[in-house]
Amino acid sequence: MVRVRVKGDIAIDDIQLMPGVCAGGDIAIDEYTTNAGVCAGGMLIIVVRVRRYAIDEIQLMPGVCAGVSPCDNSPCLNGASCSETTTAIGYTCSCLGGFIGQNCAVDAKTVSEFTCGFETENNCVFENVDDDDFQWTYRSGSTTSGGTGPSSAYEGTQYVYTEASSPNFQGDTAVLSTVNTLLAGTSSYCLQFYLHMYGIPGTMEVKFGNRGSSSSSVWSESNDQGNQWVFHQVELPPSFTDPVIFFEATRGSSYKGDVALDLVKLSLGQCASGPSARATNPCNNGGSCNENGSAAGYYCSCMTGWSGDNCDVQDVSGNSYSCGFETDGAPCIFKDTTNDEFDWTRRTKSTPSSSTGPSSAATGDYYMYIETSSPRVIGDTAVLTTQDTNLPAGSWCLTFQYHMKGSSMGSLSVFAGDRSSSLTSIWTKSGEQVDPDLWKTATIDIPQQSNPVIMIDGIRGSSYRGDIAIDDIALNAGTCASAGK
After folding, report:
1. Where is each EGF-like domain found (predicted)?
2. Are 27 and 20 spatial neighbours (Cβ–Cβ below 8 Å)?
């Protein structure tokens, strides 16, 4: 239909076109065309011309018609030359330097190494492609859905991610590609990146191949990696003359499947056998790693609320803390350390060995104890410590219930001091403690410190009959009303 635009309001309604013969006429509407015109005064005239035609034996074959060259339409751009081929499109373009693509339409940049931090949009060799289902999106802060996605970039303020919420569905893909970049060199490449896959993710793949050819998956991940940025490196083989790299994220079964990327780096050569301190990111709880010339080789910039060399010390501001051990995994400022021989164990009712340990908790159902059976030997130590908590400066009162029944009992000790110096023993009990009550109360003053740390050590005695238990730990700011009991 030819549409003619004129000034003035025109309206038509209830146009009907039906096959067959019109009532009172003999015209069969098998094939028709329309035309339109405008008369003086703005009246619209629609003319329908009806003819009878028939067609048969339509054939569509690959290639080009005899006597017609696909190069006649000049499909090759930017000075490229066109040559006929027997391929489906019937031609190939020989691009001039700096241009790539099927029709030499892309003005490509050439790189051998690069880093994408995604701090500035459209400034990375990895770009969204047009023939996928949805797009990677630049983002700062949290993603829009709870229970998935990062709360911040790994480094800087921005990252890219795939949003798994509606209207995206399971199986939809979002692709980043270097298709508009010429990767120089024919050696191996090392691709490094930080990936965040938290919630119910789908699949993340790295694909590699020659431009214009199919690509192959060289790396994939489809598991929940926790609410953290995880470093990955992938070695890309030197088997391609014009390589293209793809990041392909496939949406999983839930909207809680946001996938995020940050700090993508490509370098010539093989990947190192072990990543650097920056690559392994020793900084915990969202801290960022910065390389320097120190003995450790790095320092951490911690998120608010965390401190310590590796951002593993939580800053707190309260004046009262308690640990009753009734709920497994419940927050407690006293935690097992990794610098001892064995661990304290959460337990209900009796311990496994006879003639040692309590038959029940001091209060409630659960307590903590040290199991002194084999493979434990005399002198082995299990430590609970507040070293992962940055307690406010000042003096503190520590109280807890303890149980030391057994003929081969070791000792229970409390150490305290400043985080920057060695700790001092301030309370200890050795041997069996059964008179007058099996569960006893310890009340201990913790001397004033600017950055206090407290440790509770359970030390194994001469045999398996030396289980030590503790319960109802409480730590309160200030001094105890009756210290030393």
Report:
1. 67-105, 267-312
2. no
